Amino acid sequence: MTSSQLPRITGIDTHAHIFNRELPLAPGRRYSPEYDALAEQFLSLLDSCGLSHGVLVQPSFLGTDNSFMLAALNNYPERLRGIAVVSPGIGPSELDQLVASGVVGIRLNLVGQPLEDYSDDHWQAFFQQLAARQCSVEIQRSIDDLAQILPAILSAGVDVVVDHFGLPVGGINPKQASHKAFLDLLSNQQLWIKLSAPYRSHSSAGQVAQMLELLRSASGGVERMLWGSDWPNTQFESSTHYLEQFQRIQSLLTDPLEWEKVLIENPARLFKFATQIQSVQK
Hints:
By secondary structure, this protein is an alpha/beta fold. It is built from 9 helices and 8 strands. The chain has one domain (12-270): Metal-dependent hydrolases (TIM Barrel, Alpha-Beta Barrel). Helix 5 packs parallel to helix 6.
C-alpha cells in the first residue's frame, strides 16, 4: 500500500486492550474478564471520536500468549500496532516475527511484582534486542519505585514508556524524594510518558492537571508524551467509559499544537505509523 493510500492519521489512542471470555487465562492473574472486548469495537470507538489509529496492549491476564492481539494486527495492519508480553529469554527469530506482525514494544507490568536487577546480563541483552529493533519497553509501576529501575533499562539504549502518568496515588509531590528522582529522569530523550487512566491512581481532575504541569516542565514540553484511553477500562468499567477518557484529554490539552504532538506526531514517530498526517482542529 502506498503512502497516498494509507488512512490519514487524525489521532492515535496508544493504550487499549482486546480479549474475549473464551481465551485461556494466565495463572496468578489479578483479574478475569466476564465480557468480550474486540478489535472491531475499539475501532468503532476510534471512529466515533474522529481518531484513526490505535495501539493494542497485551492484557496481563492473557500472559505471554499474544495470539489474539496478533490476529487483530493481521486483520487491521494499517490502523493498529501492538505491545506484546514476552519472556525476557525470547529468541531473536521469535522477536523478529512479532515485529513483522506489527508489534512495536514489549510490556512489563510490574504492579504487584518483585523488582529485579535490570542491569543483569540477561535483562540487558533483552533490552538491547528491543533497542536494535526500535521497539520500546512499556512499564506499569508506581512512581515511588520508577527511579530505582529506569536508569538500568535506559542504559541499554531502549525507549521506555511509563504508563498511566506513573501511577502517582495522591498526585505527584516534587518534595518527595522518589517523585523528584523520577521527575529528574524525564530530561532523558528515551523516556516517554503515557497520559492515561488517571483513575488507576485515584487522581482527581485537579491532581491530573497538576501532574501534567509537573511532567511537562520536567520533560521540557510534550514531545515525548502520548495518550491512551485504557479501553475497556478493566476493573473500572462501571465508573468510566471511552468518551469520558477522550473528553478528559481534550480538557487537558487545550493548545492545538500540544494536541497534535500528543495525539498524532509523537505516537506516529514512536510506534512506526506511516507519516501521512492530517492536521486536525479540536
